[in-house]
Amino acid sequence: MDFNKTLTLWYSEHKRELPWRRTKNPYNIWLSEIILQQTQIAQGQPYYNAFVSKYPTVFDLANAQETEVLKLWQGLGYYSRARNLHTTAKHIATHHNGIFPNTYKDLLKLKGVGDYTASAIASICYGEPTAVVDGNVYRVLSRYFGIDTPINATDGIKEFKALAESLMDHDHPSDYNQAIMEFGAVQCKPKNPNCQICPLNDSCVALQKNLIDQLPVKLKKTKVSTKYFNFLVLLSTDKQTIFQKRVKKGIWQNLYQFPLLETEKKLKIADFKNHPFISRYFANAPFEFSLYNNKDIIHKLSHQHLHTKFWIIEIDQLPQKGMPITEIKNHPTPILISNFIDDFF
């Protein structure tokens, strides 16, 4: 069976109509690829539409304030993508007169652009025959060829990249790359794919050997840690609160949050007021407090689970400079904080 021709034929008949498929403008392709990293299309498409609407060119994005970019990104997670997006836009606008590099090698030099994104832009926009390898491609190749090398191991990454390159249609790299990605997303799905209607079913090793549920293979992730977060939601009599920008490096860098008390275990109501941090923070200023959520709100990240409580603190005067409560929704926040604000205020 001609693997790539079968896929491109399938793609021509079954591809979804998506806005970034109507253009070969590298700005739009780059934007879509960054947004769709670690994100399903159903979730990412509204963000793509919002970014294109607000920032129709790379110059518009470059001229934006980072706070505005982070606010528009809010809810997508992995906020380093948004920070890198903004940094790269400024670099393209300032050093390349708004013109994206036109080769895979030069695209790789852009911040936040890795092998997959560089391959996608180079092939779709410039017709360079360089193969994309994402989660969908790993799944299709591992199942079809029966490869059990872990896809997140160094050897596996090299093996699948080399295989993908060997299968590349050098005359139509854009169609082929989009076809194999779409095939993995729509047909060769992670769970319960309909193999009976698959155009590759007569030569798929995983189907023949009943390995569909076992491929691709991934090495076990690093153990997920548990953290206990206590956010202090201060409410003064003049309707001010304390809302701070996180300046330390991390996934929430430059996002806003309420003052945070991190503890080694769950903090009980009886222990809250006598906690050393609380005693120092309020320095004998009288306040009343209540617990917003008796049951921890668990926010799951890739490397840690955050067990979160929101403590509502009513106080006459804030212990430090605050901001009007009416302004907090204007600032970019982690979705954990955003959800609380939407529910409470």
TrEMBL record:
Cofactor binding comment, as recorded:
Binds 1 [4Fe-4S] cluster.
Tell me what reaction this enzyme catalyses. Hydrolyzes free adenine bases from 7,8-dihydro-8-oxoguanine:adenine mismatched double-stranded DNA, leaving an apurinic site
What the protein does comes down to: Adenine glycosylase active on G-A mispairs. MutY also corrects error-prone DNA synthesis past GO lesions which are due to the oxidatively damaged form of guanine: 7,8-dihydro-8-oxoguanine (8-oxo-dGTP).
List the InterPro entries hit by this protein, alphabetically.
Answer: A/G_AdeGlyc_MutY, DNA_glycosylase, Endonuclease3_FeS-loop_motif, HhH-GPD_domain, HhH_base_excis_C, HhH_motif, MIG/MutY, MutY_C
Write out the GO MF terms. 4 iron, 4 sulfur cluster binding; 8-oxo-7,8-dihydroguanine DNA N-glycosylase activity; adenine/guanine mispair binding; metal ion binding; oxidized purine DNA binding; purine-specific mismatch base pair DNA N-glycosylase activity
**Identification of the protein by name:** Adenine DNA glycosylase
**EC?**
3.2.2.31
